[in-house]
C-alpha cells in the first residue's frame, strides 16, 4: 500500500523490537525523520523498562498524512521490524499484527515454530547483522533493516532515509555516516533483488 | 527460595536484570553471600535496587527494603534502633551506589555515623549515575565522559576531581572504613568478615566496574578493576578511628594508560593535545595517591600479586553454606 | 489487590525470569590436551597424575601414570623429558620438574609394593608372543596382560630390560629399580623366556603357529660396523659391548687413555663409565656441540645436553666436528687415533658419512677406542617374519622399528602396538594417538593468578666419580607435593573458584566436584572465560 | 523551521533560546535528556550558562533559588521523587516570589517505585504556590517554556511546565523552533527587582510573625488569581508573534452542541480528540475540554465552557487518596459555587504509565457502570483490545 495513492487520512503503525544497546530506539527515530523529510506527519517513541543492555524493548513509529495527536503505543501494527530473532522465542512480537502485515526479520529465515507461509503475514528475512558488520565492523542491523523496510513498502524514500542517517550521525564523523549509508543501500537493494527473483 | 548452589546462600540470586558483565551485581553478590541471609538489607535507589526488584519480582533472598534515593542510612538507623529496642542482634547492612552515598545520601550517612549506629554501609561505586543512563556524579573520575560532563569544544569530560569520600567518612573517626574491589575477592572477603565482627558504624567502598558506563568489554569487568588498583588510581586502604591501619601494596605500578585504554569513557583523551594534558594529569593523580598511602613501600602481608592467587580447590567461599542453615526456618 | 500488585514481594522470585535469553555468546567448560602430554612420546596424561599427586593421592597418581607407562621409576631417571620443554610454566618462572615427580612415584610404588591391576576379570583365549624384553616389548606385554591376554616374552639375553639393562650404567639407572618395575609387569602373569633366540631355540614358524599375534621388539643392539684394523677387543670395541660388559658386572681394566668415538647418549654413557674406571677420556664427536649457532640443520650432537654437561663436570674432554682418519699402532697395542676436521656430516643422500678435511690431522692418545656410532636392529633368525606385516599378525615396534629414539618412545610404541593387536584380534579399527595436538598455550591462560614458586630438584651425589652410585638423588617427601602443586593444570579445571566468585548472575553453580553453568540465567558476559587461570572455559557464539 | 525532535530536545532548545545563565542539573528519568542536551550545548560553547551538577534535587532547587535571587535567569528540570525531594525549597521559592522556571517531566511517585508517566508528582505540589501549566505536545512544551519565563518574571511567581514523561519527553514529533531573534522579541532580558546586590543590600526570606505573615499569603493568592489574565494575554501575544496559541487557561475541542464533555490534561488529550471525532462521526454529541493551566485554577473559564454540558467526565492521571479525582473535586466546588448542579463523573486512569488507549477512553465516555465502592471516583479499565470495544470489559493484555 503506497502512501501517495491514498487520499483520506491514512495512518501507518510500525513496531520495532530489539534489545537494550542494539539501537532499536534510534532506528524508530530515523524512520520517523525520513517520513517527515518526505513531507508526512511522523511520530516515534520507545517503550522500555530499565535501560539495560540486552533487555528486550520496543519502539513505535506512526506515519500519516494528517497531524498525529494521540500518544498511545502501537497495538495493531502494519509492520513489525525484529532486530533480534531470538526475541521471537520469548516475547509475543507479532501480537496485533494486521493480516497481510509485513515482518522484517534480522535472520536468514524465521526461527523454528514460525513459517514464512500460512500465517497470513508477509515475511521479509535478511541477515542484517552480517550485512551491517561488513560495512560497520560491528553486527549492527538497524540501517540495513530500515533500507529493507523502505524498499518493501515504499512508505519512505531511500533519499529521505539517507538524509536522516546523515543528520542523525553527524556528530559521529564522516566515515561512520558513509558506512551507514552503504549498509542502508544494501538493505534496500537486498529486497529489490529479492523481488526480481520472486516475480 | 533458590537453593541451587549448596556452597553459598545466593542472597542475591539469578534472574535479575543487570547488564551483562555488571561489576555491581558481582560485588553485591559477593558481599551479601559473605554476610548471609540472617541480616536486614536497606538499599538506596539506584542500579542495584532497580535491576533486583524489576516489576514485582525480587532477586533478594533476605529481608530487604528500599525507600528513596537519599535516606537509606536514615532508614537503616531506624531499623537498627528498632532491633536494639527489641533486643535483637540481626546485623543491618546498607547498600547504595556512588550517587546514593557521595551525593544525595551523604547527609543521612554522616548522621548515621555520627550517632554511632551499629550498621555496615556498603557503597558500590561505578563512578556515575548509571541507572539513568551515565550522568556525572561526584565520584566520577577527572576527565571522564558522561552525558552531563561531555567532552566538547571547551571541555575534556568531567572538570572536577573524584570526591575522596573514604577520607571524609574516616574523618568521622568511625571504627572501620575500607576500600576494596571485585578483582581481589580474598581481600574483599577479609574486609567484610572483619567489618562484621566490629560494633558501631562501618563503611565499605567497593569499586564496581560498569561495562555500559565505562564502555569496556563486558568480559573485562574484573580485569579493569584490577588495573584500577595496580595503577594507583584506586588505592585499597583500611582506616580505623580515622587512622590508616592497612594498605594493599602494589607488586608493581602499572601506567594509568593500561587502565584507560580498554574504556570508551576515556577514549576522547587519546589523539588530541588537550586530551594528552589530561592523561598526564591522571598519571600525576595516581602517583600522588601512591605516595600518599605509600602503596609501593608498605610492608604488608598481601600485595596485588599474592592476594588474588589461586589454589587447587579454591581458598574458601562463604561463612556458612546453606546446608548448615536449618531448612524449616 | 490484583495478583501482580504485591506490597511484599517473594524472595528469589526473579528466578522466574530467564535472563539467559539475553546472551549472544555462551561459556563452555572444556578440558584441553596440554603441551606436556603432546610432547611426551608415551602420551602420558601428565596433568591428570600431577593433579592427584598435588592432592597427595600418591597411589591414584601412580595408577594414572602407569596407564600409559609402566616404567615411571626408570623413565624418571633416564628420560630426557621433552615434556618439560613443552611446559607452559616456563613462561611464568620455570618448567615443572615432571621427570622428578615421575621418578618419585615410581620409587614410591616399588617401596610400597603397589601392584598393577587387571582391567578385566575375563581372560582372552588368543595368545601373543613378544620378541625382545626391552621397554617396547615389556610395555606391550603389560597393556595386553592387563586386558586379559596371555603373553609370552622371548629374549636372547639372560636378563630382561634390553638396552635399559645392558646400555644404561648403574649411576643413571640402578638395576634394582629396573628389576622392580619389570617384576610388577610379570606379576600380571606374563611368561618370560630368557636365553631364547628366535631362529635358534625356537623357530620363527613355530612362533606363527603357537601364537595368534607376534610383536617384534628386538631393539637396536647391533652396533654399526667400525674399522678395527685387526685389533682385538682389548684395543677396539663397540659402545654397546663396552656398556653391556660393565653393566653385566665385568671388571674391565682400562689403559690410561680411552677415546670414545660418537655423539649420541651411548658414547656419553661409555665415556662417563670409563672415567669411573679411572681413565682419561676424550670423546671424538663428528657433530657440533649443543647450541652452536653456525651449524646447519641437524648437525647438532644427538646426546642430551644434560648428559654432556654432567660428563664435562666429571672431567670428560670433548673434540667436536672430529672424524677418525686411522688407528695408530705401537707394536701390538693401539697408541692413539688420528682424527681430522669434519666438513660435511651427512653425504648427498642424507646418510651419516662425515667428509674430512685434508691436512687437519692430529693425534688423540688412546689405548682403547670405543666406537659408539649408532646401532641397528639384529634381524638374524627373523628375516622373513620381520617382512610379514600386521595383516598376517606380525607387529614391529621400539628402536627396531626405525631410528633409535628415547626409551619413552619405545614404551609408547609398545602401547600403540598392543592396542593395534587387540583391535585386529577383535576385528575393530584402530587409530594411534601419539602426539595428539595440544589445545592450550600460555597466551590463553592468566599466569598472574599462579603463585611464583622455585622448582624443586633432587640433590646431587658429590662423590660422583668414586663409583657407580646414583648421581641424582630423587625428590624428598616434602618437595614432591610442592612440585606437583606447581603444575598449572593447563586447560583442565582445578576448582580454583574464580568463575564461581566472579559470575554477576550466580549462573555458575558449585558442585561437589567442579562447576555447572545454569544457562537459564547466564548472560554470556565472558568474565568467567576471561578470568579462568588455566583457560578451561571457551566462549562460543549462540547458534542463531 | 519545523524539525522532528524528541520532546526533551525541543524543551532543551527552548531553554537555550531563553538565554538562562545558570542551569542546575540532577539526573532522574524521564527528564534527564533535557539536562544532557543543555550540558552538551554548554560544553560546545553554544549556551553561555553555568552548568551546575547538583548533588540532589534538593540541591538543584536551592541552586536555582540562589541564582535567581542573585539576578540570573535560571533553569532546572526534575520529575517524581525528585520533585517531592524539592518540596520544601519549592514552597520557599514561591513564598519569596522568585521567578524560577522549571520543567517537571511527569512521572508516578513511589512506593512502589515506577519510572513511567502520570501526574501524581506535580499534583502533589499543587498548593506550593507555583503556576502549573500542563502541555499536550512537544510543540506546546517548547512554546510554553518560553511563555513561562515571561509569565514568571512579570508576575514574580515561579512557573512549573508539566510535560508527560516518555509520552512527550521521549517521543519524536514535529516541532517548529522559533529563531533567537523571535524569542528575544517576545521574551525581554531577565529583570527582577528584589536581588542580592551590594549596591542596594536587602535581606530576603527573613522572619515574619502573626501580625504580617497572612498578608504574604493574601498577596501571593491575589497575584496567582490575577496571573490568569497574564497567562491568557501572553498566550495570545505568543499567537500573534509565532502563529500558535493553546487557549490560554483551557482549550476547547468541538464543544458546540456537545451534551457530554470530557475534561482532561496533558498528552492523553490527543487520543481524546481522535475519540471525539469518531463518536461525532457516529452522531454522538460529544466534546472535549483541555485544562492547560491547573494553577491558578481557572474556575471562571471552566464554568463558561461547561455551563451547557449535561454530563461532565473528568479523566485524570492522579488522585487524592481517600477523596478522589483532584480536578474533579475542584471543578465540583466551582460549579456548585456558580449554582450549576451538573454531576461530575470523576475517572482516574493511566497511573504508572498505563496506556489510555482510544478504546479505553471511548469506554469511559460511554459511561461504563461505576463499581459500587467507587462512590467518589471510578478507575479506568485496563487495556481493551480493539475488536471487543462494545463489550467494554477489560482484557488484561
List the helices and strands and how they pair.
The complex is a heterotetramer of chains A (199), B (329), C (544) and D (397).
Chain A: E1 11-19, H1 24-37, E2 41-47, E3 56-64, E4 79-82, H2 87-90, E5 102-106, E6 122-126, H3 128-136, H4 142-153, H5 158-168, H6 174-198
Parallel strand pairs in A: 1-4, 4-5, 5-6
Antiparallel strand pairs in A: 1-3, 2-3
Helix pairs in contact in A: 1-5, 3-4, 3-6, 4-6, 5-6
Chain C: E1 25-29, H1 35-39, H2 46-54, H3 58-66, H4 72-78, H5 82-86, H6 98-112, E2 128-131, H7 135-146, E3 151-154, H8 163-166, H9 175-186, E4 191-193, H10 204-210, E5 213-216, E6 222-223, E7 236-238, H11 239-247, E8 257-261, H12 265-276, E9 280-285, H13 305-313, E10 317-320, E11 322-330, E12 333-341, E13 362-365, E14 368-371, E15 375-376, H14 385-388, E16 394-396, H15 407-425, H16 477-485, H17 498-502, E17 508-510, E18 515-517, H18 527-531, E19 537-541
Parallel strand pairs in C: 2-3, 2-5, 3-4, 5-16, 7-14, 8-9, 8-14, 9-10
Antiparallel strand pairs in C: 1-19, 6-15, 11-12, 12-13, 17-18
Helix pairs in contact in C: 2-3, 2-16, 3-6, 4-6, 7-15, 11-12
Chain D: E1 2-6, H1 7-17, E2 22-25, H2 32-43, E3 50-53, H3 57-69, E4 74-78, H4 80-95, E5 101-106, H5 120-124, E6 131-134, H6 138-155, E7 159-164, E8 172-176, H7 180-186, H8 210-242, E9 250-253, E10 260-264, H9 269-281, E11 286-291, E12 293-295, H10 299-306, E13 311-316, H11 326-337, E14 344-348, H12 358-365, E15 378-379
Parallel strand pairs in D: 2-3, 2-4, 4-5, 5-7, 6-7, 10-11, 10-13, 13-14, 14-15
Antiparallel strand pairs in D: 1-8, 6-12, 9-11
Helix pairs in contact in D: 1-2, 1-6, 3-4, 6-8, 9-12
State the CATH topology of the largest domain in chain C.
FAD/NAD(P)-binding domain
Number of helices of chain B: 11
Shape of chain C: globular
Q: From the 3D coordinates, which CATH architecture of the largest domain in chain C would you assign?
A: 3-Layer(bba) Sandwich
Structure explained in plain terms:
The complex is a heterotetramer of chains A (199), B (329), C (544) and D (397). Chain A is of the alpha/beta class and 199 residues long. Helix content of chain A is 38%, strand content 20%. In chain A, β2 and β3 form a beta hairpin. In chain A, α1 packs across α5 and α4 packs across α6. The two termini of chain A are 18 Å apart. The N terminus of chain A is likely disordered. Chain B has one domain: 3-Layer(aba) Sandwich (Rossmann fold), CATH 3.40.50. Chain B is 33% helix and 12% strand. In chain B, strands 2-1-3-4-6-5-7-8 form an 8-stranded mixed β-sheet, sandwiched between helices. The longest helix of chain B is centred in the C-terminal third of the chain and has 21 residues. Chain B is globular and about 60 Å long. The termini of chain B are close together. Chain C has 4 domains: 63 residues, 2-Layer Sandwich (Alpha-Beta Plaits); 125 residues, Fumarate Reductase Iron-sulfur Protein, Chain B, domain 2; 143 residues, FAD/NAD(P)-binding domain (3-Layer(bba) Sandwich), CATH 3.50.50; 149 residues, FAD/NAD(P)-binding domain, CATH 3.50.50.60. Chain C has a 5-stranded parallel β-sheet with strand order 4-3-2-5-16. In chain C, α2 packs antiparallel against α3, α3 packs across α6 and α11 packs across α12. The radius of gyration of chain C is 28 Å and the shape is globular. Helices cover 39% and strands 18% of the residues of chain D. Chain D has 12 helices and 15 strands. In chain D, strands 3-2-4-5-7-6-12 form a 7-stranded mixed β-sheet, with helices on both faces. Chain D is globular and about 65 Å long. The C terminus of chain D is likely disordered. At the B-C interface, α1 and α9 of B face α17 and α18 of C.
Amino acid at each position: 500500500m503506497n502512501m501517495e495513492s491514498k487520499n483520506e487520512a491514512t495512518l501507518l503503525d510500525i513496531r520495532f523490537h530489539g534489545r537494550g544497546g542494539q539501537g532499536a530506539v534510534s532506528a524508530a527515530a530515523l524512520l520517523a525523520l525520513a517520513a517527515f523529510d518526505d513531507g508526512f506527519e511522523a511520530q516515534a517513541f520507545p517503550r522500555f523498562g530499565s535501560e539495560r543492555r540486552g533487555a528486550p524493548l520496543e519502539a513505535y513509529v506512526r506515519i500519516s498524512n494528517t497531524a498525529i495527536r494521540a500518544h498511545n503505543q502501537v497495538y495493531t501494527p502494519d509492520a513489525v521490524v525484529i532486530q533480534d530473532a531470538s526475541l521471537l522465542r520469548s516475547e509475543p512480537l507479532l501480537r496485533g499484527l494486521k493480516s497481510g502485515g509485513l515482518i522484517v526479520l534480522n535472520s536468514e529465515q524465521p526461527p523454528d515454530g514460525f513459517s514464512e507461509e500460512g500465517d497470513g503475514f508477509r515475511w521479509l528475512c535478511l541477515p542484517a547483522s552480517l550485512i551491517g558488520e561488513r560495512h560497520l565492523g560491528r553486527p549492527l542491523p538497524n540501517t540495513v533493516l530500515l533500507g529493507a523496510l523502505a524498499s518493501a513498502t515504499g512508505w519512505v524514500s531511500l533519499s529521505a532515509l539517507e538524509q536522516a542517517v546523515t543528520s542523525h550521525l553527524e556528530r559521529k564523523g564522516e566515515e561512520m555516516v558513509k558506512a551507514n549509508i552503504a549498509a542502508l543501500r544494501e538493505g534496500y537493494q537486498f529486497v529489490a533483488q529479492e523481488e526480481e527473483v520472486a516475480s | 527460595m533458590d537453593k541451587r548452589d549448596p556452597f553459598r546462600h545466593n542472597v542475591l540470586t539469578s534472574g535479575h536484570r543487570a547488564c551483562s558483565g555488571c561489576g555491581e551485581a558481582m560485588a553485591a553478590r559477593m558481599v551479601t553471600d559473605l554476610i548471609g541471609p540472617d541480616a536486614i538489607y536497606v538499599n538506596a535507589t539506584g542500579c542495584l535496587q532497580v535491576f533486583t526488584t524489576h516489576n514485582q519480582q525480587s532477586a533478594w533472598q533476605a529481608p530487604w527494603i528500599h525507600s528513596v534515593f537519599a535516606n537509606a542510612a536514615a532508614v537503616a538507623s531506624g531499623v537498627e534502633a528498632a532491633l536494639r529496642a527489641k533486643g535483637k542482634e540481626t546485623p543491618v547492612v546498607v547498600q547504595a551506589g556512588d550517587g546514593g552515598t557521595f551525593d544525595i545520601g551523604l547527609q543521612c550517612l554522616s548522621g548515621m555515623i555520627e550517632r554511632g549506629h551499629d550498621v555496615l554501609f556498603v557503597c558500590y561505586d561505578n563512578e556515575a549515575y548509571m541507572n539513568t543512563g551515565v550522568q556525572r556524579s561526584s565520584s566520577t573520575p577527572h576527565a571522564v565522559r558522561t552525558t552531563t560532563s561531555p567532552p566538547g569544544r571547551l571541555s575534556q569530560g568531567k572538570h572536577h576531581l573524584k570526591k575522596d569520600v573514604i577520607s571524609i567518612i574516616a574523618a568521622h573517626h568511625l571504627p572501620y572504613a575500607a576500600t576494596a574491589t571485585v578483582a581481589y575477592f580474598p581481600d574483599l572477603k577479609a574486609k567484610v568478615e572483619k567489618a562484621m565482627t566490629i560494633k558501631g558504624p562501618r563503611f565499605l567502598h567497593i569499586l564496581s566496574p560498569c561495562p555500559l558506563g565505562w564502555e569496556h568489554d563486558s568480559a573485562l569487568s574484573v580485569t579493569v578493576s584490577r588495573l584500577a588498583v595496580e595503577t594507583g588510581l584506586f588505592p585499597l586502604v583500611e582506616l580505623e578511628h580515622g587512622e590508616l591501619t592497612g594498605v594493599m601494596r602494589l607488586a608493581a605500578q602499572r601506567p594509568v594508560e593500561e587502565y584507560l585504554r580498554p574504556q570508551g569513557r576515556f577514549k576522547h583523551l587519546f589523539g588530541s593535545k588537550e586530551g594528552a594534558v589530561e592523561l598526564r594529569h591522571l598519571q600525576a593523580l595516581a602517583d600522588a595517591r601512591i605516595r600518599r598511602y605509600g602503596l609501593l613501600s608498605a610492608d604488608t602481608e598481601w600485595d596485588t600479586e599474592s592476594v588474588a592467587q589461586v589454589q587447587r580447590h579454591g581458598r574458601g567461599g562463604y561463612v556458612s553454606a546453606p546446608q548448615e542453615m536449618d531448612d524449616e526456618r | 489487590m490484583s495478583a501482580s500488585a504485591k506490597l511484599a514481594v517473594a524472595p528469589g522470585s526473579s528466578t522466574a525470569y530467564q535472563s539467559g535469553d539475553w546472551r549472544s555468546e555462551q561459556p563452555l567448560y572444556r578440558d584441553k590436551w596440554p603441551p606436556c602430554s603432546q610432547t611426551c612420546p608415551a602420551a602420558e596424561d601428565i596433568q591428570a597424575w600431577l593433579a592427584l599427586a598435588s592432592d597427595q593421592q600418591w597411589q591414584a597418581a601412580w595408577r594414572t601414570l602407569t596407564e600409559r607407562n609402566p616404567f615411571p621409576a626408570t623413565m624418571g631417571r633416564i628420560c630426557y623429558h621433552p615434556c618439560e620443554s613443552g611446559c607452559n610454566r616456563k613462561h611464568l618462572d620455570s618448567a615443572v620438574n615432571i621427570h622428578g615427580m615421575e621418578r618419585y612415584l615410581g620409587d614410591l610404588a616399588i617401596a610400597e609394593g603397589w601392584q598393577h591391576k587387571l582391567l578385566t576379570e575375563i581372560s582372552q583365549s588368543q595368545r601373543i608372543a613378544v620378541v625382545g624384553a626391552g621397554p617396547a616389548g615389556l610395555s606391550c606385554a603389560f597393556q595386553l596382560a592387563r586386558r586379559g591376554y596371555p603373553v609370552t616374552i622371548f629374549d636372547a639375553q639372560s636378563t630382561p630390560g634390553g638396552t635399559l639393562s645392558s646400555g644404561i650404567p648403574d649411576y643413571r639407572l640402578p638395576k634394582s629399580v629396573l628389576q622392580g618395575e619389570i617384576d610388577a609387569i610379570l606379576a600380571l602373569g606374563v611368561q618370560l623366556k630368557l636365553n631364547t633366540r628366535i631362529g635358534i631355540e625356537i623357530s620363527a614358524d613355530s612362533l606363527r603357529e603357537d601364537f595368534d599375534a607376534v610383536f617384534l621388539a628386538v631393539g637396536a643392539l647391533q652396533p654399526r660396523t667400525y674399522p678395527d684394523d685387526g685389533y682385538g677387543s682389548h684395543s677396539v670395541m663397540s659402545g654397546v659391548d663396552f656398556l653391556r660388559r660393565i653393566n653385566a658386572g665385568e671388571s674391565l681394566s682400562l689403559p690410561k687413555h680411552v677415546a670414545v668415538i660418537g655423539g649420541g647418549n651411548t658414547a656419553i654413557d661409555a665415556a662417563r663409565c670409563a672415567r669411573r674406571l679411572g681413565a682419561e677420556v676424550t670423546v671424538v664427536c663428528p657433530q657440533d656441540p649443543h647450541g652452536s649457532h653456525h651449524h646447519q640443520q641437524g648437525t647438532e650432537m644427538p646426546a642430551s645436553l644434560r648428559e654432556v654437561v654432567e660428563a664435562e663436570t666429571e672431567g670428560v674432554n670433548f673434540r667436536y666436528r672430529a672424524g677418525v682418519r686411522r688407528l695408530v699402532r705401537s707394536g701390538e697395542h693401539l697408541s692413539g687415533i688420528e682424527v681430522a676436521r669434519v666438513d660435511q656430516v651427512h653425504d648427498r643422500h642424507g646418510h651419516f658419512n662425515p667428509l674430512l678435511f685434508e691436512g687437519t690431522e692430529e693425534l688423540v692418545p688412546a689405548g682403547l677406542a670405543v666406537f659408539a656410532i649408532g646401532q641397528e636392529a639384529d634381524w638374524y633368525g627373523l628375516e622373513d617374519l620381520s617382512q610379514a606385516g600386521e595383516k598376517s599378525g606380525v607387529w614391529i615396534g621400539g628402536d627396531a622399528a626405525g631410528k633409535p629414539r628415547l626409551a619413552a618412545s619405545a614404551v609408547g610404541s609398545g602401547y600403540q602396538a598392543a592396542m593395534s593387536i587387540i583391535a585386529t584380534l577383535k576385528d575393530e579399527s584402530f587409530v594411534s594417538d601419539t602426539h595428539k595436538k595440544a589445545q592450550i598455550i600460555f597466551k590463553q591462560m592468566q599466569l598472574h593468578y599462579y603463585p611464583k614458586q622455585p622448582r624443586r630438584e633432587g640433590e646431587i651425589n658429590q662423590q660422583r666419580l668414586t663409583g657407580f652410585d646414583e648421581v641424582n638423588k630423587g625428590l624428598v617427601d616434602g618437595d614432591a607435593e610442592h612440585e606437583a602443586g606447581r603444575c598449572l593444570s593447563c586447560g583442565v579445571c582445578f576448582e580454583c573458584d574464580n568463575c564461581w566468585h566472579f559470575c554477576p548472575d550466580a549462573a555458575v553453580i558449585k558442585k561437589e566436584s567442579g562447576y555447572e553453568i545454569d544457562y537459564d540465567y547466564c548472560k554470556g558476559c565472558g568474565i568467567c572465560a576471561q578470568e579462568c587461570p588455566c583457560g578451561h572455559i571457551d566462549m562460543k557464539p549462540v547458534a542463531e | 523551521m519545523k524539525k522532528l525532535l524528541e520532546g526533551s530536545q525541543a524543551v532543551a532548545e527552548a531553554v537555550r533560546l531563553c538565554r538562562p545563565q545558570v542551569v542546575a542539573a540532577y539526573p532522574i528519568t524521564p527528564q534527564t535528556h533535557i539536562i544532557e542536551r543543555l550540558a552538551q550545548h554548554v560544553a560546545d560553547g553554544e549556551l553561555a550558562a553555568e552548568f551546575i551538577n547538583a548533588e540532589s534535587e534538593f540541591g538543584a532547587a536551592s541552586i536555582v533559588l540562589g541564582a535567581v535571587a542573585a539576578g540570573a535567569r535560571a533553569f532546572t528540570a526534575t520529575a517524581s521523587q525528585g520533585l517531592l525531594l524539592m518540596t520544601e525549597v519549592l514552597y520557599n521559592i514561591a513564598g519569596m516570589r522568585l521567578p524560577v522556571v522549571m520543567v517537571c517531566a511527569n512521572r508516578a511517585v513511589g512506593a512502589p517505585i515506577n519510572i513511567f508517566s502520570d501526574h501524581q508528582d506535580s499534583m502533589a505540589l499543587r498548593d506550593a504556590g507555583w503556576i502549573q501549566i500542563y502541555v499536550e505536545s512537544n510543540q506546546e512544551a517548547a512554546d510554553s517554556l518560553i511563555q513561562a519565563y515571561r509569565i514568571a518574571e512579570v508576575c514574580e511567581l515561579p512557573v512549573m511546565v508539566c510535560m508527560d514523561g516518555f509520552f512527550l519527553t521521549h517521543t519524536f514529533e514535529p516541532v517548529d523552533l522559533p529563531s533567537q531573534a523571535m524569542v528575544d522579541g517576545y521574551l525581554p532580558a531577565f529583570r527582577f527587582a528584589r536581588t542580592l546586590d551590594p549596591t542596594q543590600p536587602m535581606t530576603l526570606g527573613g522572619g515574619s510573625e502573626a501580625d504580617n505573615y497572612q498578608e504574604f499569603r493574601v498577596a501571593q493568592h491575589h497575584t496567582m488569581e490575577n496571573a490568569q489574565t497574564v497567562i491568557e494575554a501572553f498566550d495570545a501575544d505568543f499567537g500573534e508573534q509565532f502563529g500558535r496559541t493553546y487557549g490560554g487557561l483551557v482549550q476547547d475541542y468541538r464543544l458546540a452542541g456537545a451534551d457530554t464533555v470530557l475534561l482532561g490534561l496533558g498528552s492523553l488529550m490527543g487520543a481524546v480528540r481522535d475519540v471525539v471525532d469518531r463518536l461525532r462521526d457516529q452522531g454522538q454529541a460529544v466534546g472535549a475540554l483541555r485544562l492547560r493551566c491547573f494553577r491558578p485554577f481557572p474556575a471562571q473559564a471552566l464554568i463558561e465552557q461547561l455551563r451547557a454540558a449535561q454530563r461532565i467526565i473528568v479523566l485524570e492521571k492522579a488522585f487524592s487518596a481517600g477523596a478522589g479525582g483532584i480536578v474533579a473535586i475542584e471543578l465540583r466546588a466551582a460549579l456548585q459555587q456558580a449554582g450549576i448542579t451538573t454531576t461530575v463523573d470523576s475517572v482516574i486512569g493511566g497511573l504508572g504509565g498505563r496506556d489510555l488507549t482510544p478504546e479505553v477512553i471511548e469506554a469511559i465516555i460511554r459511561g461504563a457502570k461505576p463499581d459500587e465502592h467507587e462512590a467518589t471516583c471510578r478507575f479506568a479499565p485496563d487495556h481493551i483490545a480493539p475488536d471487543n470495544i462494545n463489550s467494554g470489559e477489560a482484557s488484561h493484555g
